[in-house]
Amino acid sequence: MSINVQLHDGVVPYLVSPYENFFFLIHHVKLTVESGNGYPGQGGCFYGGEGRCYVSQYRLVFVSDSARDSGAYRSFSLPFYGIRDWSFNVSLFGGKCWKGHVNRVPGGGLVGVGRFAMEFLVRLGFWV
């Protein structure tokens, strides 16, 4: 996982390979990420926000709705090979959520293994 991947015109992620294609674009997604071991001084980080998710055969790229702003948190890249211990949570009247752990990418800006939760905010055609 890496934070603030390069974005083309501030909204669309660059492709990492000439063979990569973005197959899906999912709007109205909320991503929360916690990194670090939870002890003070150990580099714990928390990121969260709403935005859209680009899906390719290699990775998921989350782009925050406030990506055009100069904030510290704009995007995340979650490579599929680094995601582990994941689960989907679906309730009858609640939202759908994908939770798991993801290994950090060297030089990606996170410390240690991260915990992520991706919530899909559209239910039965209505926003939550």
Topology:
Blueprint: E1 2-3, E2 7-8, E3 12-13, E4 22-35, E5 45-56, E6 59-64, E7 75-79, E8 83-90, E9 96-102, E10 114-120, E11 122-123, E12 126-127
Antiparallel strand pairs: 1-7, 2-3, 4-5, 4-10, 5-6, 6-7, 8-9, 9-10, 11-12
Query: Could you say what the CATH topology is called?
Result: PH-domain like
**Can you tell me the overall shape?**
globular
User: How does the major sheet shape up?
Assistant: 8 strands, antiparallel
Strand residues, percent: over 45%
Mean pLDDT: 78
Please report the total strand number as a whole number. 12
CATH level-two architecture: Roll
Order of helices and strands: EEEEEEEEEEEE
How does the helix and strand content classify structurally? mainly beta
Description:
Helix content is 0%, strand content 54%. With 128 residues, it is mostly beta strands. The protein has one domain (2-127): Pleckstrin-homology domain (PH domain)/Phosphotyrosine-binding domain (PTB) (PH-domain like, Roll). The strands form three sheets. An eight-stranded antiparallel sheet has the order 1-7-6-5-4-10-9-8, with no helix packed on it. Strands 2-3 form a two-stranded antiparallel ribbon. Strands 11-12 form a two-stranded antiparallel sheet. The two termini are 27 Å apart.
